[in-house]
Amino acid sequence: MATLILLTGRISGQTATNGPPAPSPDTAPNSWAYSFSAYTFLLPHEQNYVNPNFTADHGGLHLEARYNYEALRTGSVWVGHNFSVGKKLVLAVTPMLGGVFGNLTGVAPGYNLSLSFGKFELSSQSEYVFDTRDRAGNFFYTLSEFSYSPVDWFRTGLVAQRTKAYETELDIQRGLLAGFSYKKVDFTTYIFNFGWTDPTVVFAAGVNF
Q: Is the Cβ–Cβ distance between 87 and 102 less than 8 Å?
């Protein structure tokens, strides 16, 4: 899902950048690309928790696994296909279908999306969960970011999310992000709701390999 120095990178999860990056065009078509990320949520009035995420890409094939994303003590597995168009203005989209199990059980269509132009990027990771136990549990989740990278190793920007993994006074949480990348490792911090209600701070770290 106080004011601190923000550290952010391009990683996946509920957070985070939203969705894994599209495979590099330099990647051999028969090779695999992997990423792992973990988001630590520091909540003002609830128990803190960690959301780990793993992705694997092979050509157009995209596989993904998440835990504590849709709900606590809940996992989800995903399969999708990567599409990318454009050179200067690059659109990368991965439509996916997921299965959710644990405290929440359901089926979830979703997508990872990024639109980049120069030093600017808009990204979104969204899904709609159809709760197979109780229709009232159906819910739309999203994590969206708009960021600016003045240099390759640093970016900052705005973030918004909608989640049921924890509760706040705001249905749609919004906040700030900034951060650093070093080689294949990224470090991220998000601050949600600062100025509206008690802030939620999320620290994230990810690696691509």
A: no
